[in-house]
Amino acid sequence: MMRYGKFILLAFLVLFVSCLELPEDVNLPAEKVLSVSALLQNDVAEQRLYLYRGGAVSDTSNPDIFRVSGADVRLSVNGLTYNYTESDTSKGCYVLKNFSPQGKTLYRLIVNHPSFPQIRTETLYPAIQDFNWSYFFDSGGNLHLSWRKNAYCAGYRVDMYQWKYGFHNGWEEEYFWGSENYYFTPDTFLIIEEKALLHQNRKVDLKFFVFAVDKNYYDYSRFRTYFDPLDFRLVDFGNFSTIENGLGYFGSVYRDSVIILRND
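RESULT FIELD:
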């Protein structure tokens, strides 16, 4: 996978040095505390939730060490309850299929397990709205990208990829690759230097994903950057929590994208 250099953002990007207002420490041994990793998303076939024992670090390529199975996981909204089911192939992974979250809506999560205290949490899903993209290149080749404010989110995550459409692995389809970097900002714009937009000194077509994110995910991004819950990689919750009687968080994101064609 090709990698871009780090974006140089002239927007004010967030990883604040100020302390987070975190809940009081859970007064239980680590092995008796559940950690939650879950996001509600608008463009996935199934919602996923992961449960871990304590706040330990777990490489999800070896999930049996820390993941917790046998839990009852329920999502409640507007008087209705939806049950997650545990995956048959991935221990401690719970899925909710064919579920699309509604904008500006509060979702409550309850997890019961015979070996752990009941945990509760909630997320306010961002508004579902058009981002109304706008962009231009200045005289120096720098990209100015902006989008419409989402009043029901705490901030934004932005990803950039090189993009192509054509035959790939025998299929005619869209595919994209590139940066593993992602950035969080409270603003509705960013500026990227021209050199970060090039591949081998050539202009390339680009695809940007912007996520309107809830407060839980936004606060987590300020607390720790070693884990990307959209990619389900490395988990280290430490003592971070937006969970009652547990660690980790339950968040939500609304994603949209824009393609910028500029291939030489």
